[in-house]
Amino acid sequence: MTPVPDPTRFHDLYAQGFLRVAACTAPVVLADPHANARAVIEQATECAADGVGLAVFPELGLVGYTISDLLLQQSLLDTTEQALADLAAASASLLPVLVVGAPLRQGGALYNCAVVIHRGRILGAVPKSYRPNYREFYEARTSASGIGLAGQTIAIAGDTVPFGTDLLFAATDLRDFVLHVEICEDLWVAQPPSGAGALAGATVLANPSASPITIGRADTRTLLCRAQSSRCLAAYVYAAAGEGESTTDLAWDGQVGIYEAGDILAESGRFPTGPSRATADIDLMRLAQERLRMTTFIENARATPPAAPFRRIGFTLDPPIADLGLRRPLERFPFVPSDPARLASDCYEAYAIQVSGLVQRLRATATKRVVIGISGGLDSTQALIVAARAFDRLGLPRSDILAWTMPGFATSGETKANAWALMDALGVRAAELDIRPSAELMLRMIDHPAGSGAPVYDTTFENVQAGLRTDYLFRLANHHQALVLGTGDLSEIALGWSTYGVGDHMSHYNVNSGVPKTLIQHLIRWVAEGDLYSPEVGDILRRILATEISPELVPAGADGAVQSTEAKIGPYALQDFTLFHVLRHGFGPARIAFLAEHAWSDPAAGRWPQGIAPDARRGYDLAEIRHWLGVFVERYFGFSQFKRSAMPNGPKVSHGGSLSPRGDWRAPSDGNAALWRAELAAIPES
Ligand SMILES: Nc1ncnc2c1ncn2[C@@H]1O[C@H](COP(=O)(O)OP(=O)(O)OC[C@H]2O[C@@H]([n+]3cccc(C(=O)O)c3)[C@H](O)[C@@H]2O)[C@@H](O)[C@H]1O
Ligand SMILES: Nc1ncnc2c1ncn2[C@@H]1O[C@H](COP(=O)(O)OP(=O)(O)OP(=O)(O)O)[C@@H](O)[C@H]1O
Ligand SMILES: NC(=O)CC[C@H](N)C(=O)O
Fold first, then answer.
1. How far is the CA of 314 from the centre of ligand 1 (A)?
2. Measuring CA to CA, which residue among 290, 317, 358, 230 is closest to residue 586?
3. Positions marked active-site
4. Which residues does 602 contact at the CB level (< 8 Å), separation at least 6?
5. Range 360-363 contact pairs with CB under 8 angstroms and sequence separation of 24 or more
6. What is the ipTM of this complex?
7. Residue 119: its pLDDT value, please?
8. How far apart are CA 229 and CA 217, in angstroms?
9. What is the tens place of the pLDDT at every residue in 420-463?
10. Nearest residue to 156 via CA among 191, 217, 106
11. Residue 310 in contact with residue 167, Cβ under 8 Å?
């Protein structure tokens, strides 16, 4: 099944390129394969009802990891095979691919294996490569290593199935679901077998484990799973043994977890009583996209060919066609973490990146002054507090930050007062330059009706003001040997919401170009709350945060309503959501609408970032999401690239990406939006 924007399957996570997986653990009955197989069937049945496509169980889970020499008992080994046959038969009507641990004989040796079973078939058995035989472990006494075993088969209860460390299990009907299996210690070595599996195309790495618990070991496991999923650009599904394992000398905590490209998707509670599992939806499309982008992944695959080519075992998953929801962490604001500690750390880094970008440019050019237009809005405020810190760091007086507030036809008393208060409180050199006379002259000279007082407030009327401000700033920069500091943020650059060339699009250096609008308010709040300047500056910053975002280019209407940016180009909350997923993941409109609906439709669900007032916590339904996605598609793909192709320098800030044509995003200035428009049209209304 290829994720396509099929309107009838829009709400179906499998059609959208996700795979629901479960990492399971259950009390084991030592040396009783039938009892343990029954416990697996019980969980597998629940998993199937939950839409799970892959369920991973612990190492040697059919017999218990801690049975030591009992592993070599003939009765145990024969019964294990029967239990596997029973398990395979019981799986016939179940959705998930099952990965279970069992000891198996082949070619005169015993192997600690992961057996992969699906819909009545044993698809294959993978032996453990690295058997720990140090400290508390004695595996070499009972089992042989699977290292180098390739191209072989194994007999299980009369059935002959592929056997070796050269196996990948690939769904024929779910794009990019390719499974590799390794066993516990295999993850602890410098080059885990799953590395080769991933380079050969596996996107999902399973690890049935039996890892005795000692203080701190759980953290090590999480570290290893996250790191392996990160360097393999894969999902890692880890399930450790728990209750029932022998406590003769050790204890067991049943840790299970699901990781994806370094992220923790789900972890269950440790030391559970009874069966327990973690379930999460793996984003196969994201993993495939990450690999496409990170071209060193495939280079690494070529540089390190596997000892033997991997065999691909095909199977048909036949996932349900249904709305199963979406079970994975999903930020409403991909640029603004909902975890307060993470947000604080992101703000620290973003601010430090902006400051260091400007410090280097001033140092390299031996420039001792900047000029900047201060509107009292968010962007110029942020640029000014970045400049102030950069000047402090360079030991330059803040009085050499030359700030102008430049009222135009729609400047409100409130924003102008905020602009003045901020400039004064920061101790920069503040001045006012009324652009209206020049603007009136220009409008008259170009025969614009507004030049003779007619209320024609079109784009030209707006751009005359934005253009004149920029013109003044550049000439002031010449006059004072200064740099013009840009203020336009990443979201405006994405949407082309600036006046080209002779306008706020241009500057000598733009400290905000890597910062999305949804993050800027948090950066300003972080500076205010952290008292990075004086309490007075903090109060002014809070006042600025409370003002509606408006370009203030068109006079307020008769009802006093100010020109609202978001009413025109869409809520920045949604546009930044789309921007992140387009830029970082290359997702199309159908995928983004699916994610946005899960992130945004219910304001009561999930966490909000700190600092967003309860009455501002609104939701968006699919129809609204579709509408604003349409605006994004037209402006981003269809219109604004010519502005980005000529944008000034400025530092990349977010891992989401930058839009510099020299940095992160290159695209033709004469492209079109047809492809995305067509996909958008296939998104259902609800
Ligand atoms: N692909 C392409 N290659 C080369 N040139 C291209 C082009 N597509 C259009 N153009 C030309 O570009 C011009 C249109 O671009 P441009 O002059 O920028 O004007 P435009 O993008 O039409 O308008 C600027 C908008 O940004 C808003 N704005 C301005 C300033 C600040 C803020 C803010 O809130 O921060 C918002 C303003 O309210 C206005 O609605 C046209 O003359 C068109 O012919
Ligand atoms: N009244 C003004 N006085 C001085 N500069 C201004 C004024 N209005 C706009 N500017 C300059 O033009 C930039 C773009 O202005 P605009 O208000 O249209 O959009 P913005 O991106 O929302 O910026 P801000 O949040 O700083 O207002 C501002 O950041 C500022 O540098
Ligand atoms: N069963 C195993 O392979 C366990 C080994 C692993 N090093 C651990 O401590 O968890």
1. 53
2. 290
3. 59, 128, 184
4. 619
5. 361/483, 361/509, 361/649, 362/390, 362/394, 362/396, 362/483, 363/394
6. 0.94
7. 98
8. 18
9. 999 999 999 999 999 999 999 999 999 999 999 999 999 999 99
10. 106
11. yes
Alpha-carbon gap, residue 153 to 191, rounded angstroms: 25
Instruction: Count Cβ atoms below 10 Å from residue 496 Cβ, excluding itself.
Output: 19
- Alpha helices, DSSP H, located in 339-407: 340-365, 378-394
Ligand number nearest CA of 238 is 3
Cβ–Cβ < 8 Å for 499, 465: no
Beta carbons within 8 Å of 405's beta carbon, 6+ residues apart: 373, 374, 375, 376, 416, 419, 420, 423, 430, 431, 432, 433
d(CA 114, CA 124): 9
CA dist 75 → 32, 37, 260 (Å) = 10, 16, 40
CA distances from 393 to 355, 358, 362, 396, 548 (A): 9, 10, 11, 8, 32
The SS3 assignment for 424 reads helix
For domain 340-682, is the CATH number 3.40.50.620? yes
Of 459, 513, 634, best ligand 1 pocket probe by most atoms within 8 Å of the beta carbon? 459
Query: What CATH number has the domain spanning 19-315?
Result: 3.60.110.10
Q: What separation in Å is there between the alpha carbon of 349 and the centre of ligand 2?
A: 24
**Sequence ranges of the chain with CATH classification 3.40.50.620:** 340-682
Q: Which residues contact 593 (CB under 8 A, 6 or more apart)?
A: 10, 622, 625, 626, 629, 680, 683
Q: Where in the chain is the domain with CATH 3.60.110.10?
A: 19-315
Residue nearest to atom 23 of ligand 2 (CA): 379
Q: What is the DSSP string of 311-358?
A: EEEEE------S-----S---SSTTS-SSHHHHHHHHHHHHHHHHHHH
| pLDDT digits 0-9 by tens, 647-668 | 999 999 999 999 999 999 999 9
To test ligand 2's pocket by mutation, which of 371, 372, 379 has the most ligand atoms within 8 angstroms of CB? 379
The Cα–Cα gap between 664 and 342 comes to: 24
In the predicted model, residues of the chain with pLDDT beneath 70 are 1-5, 558-560
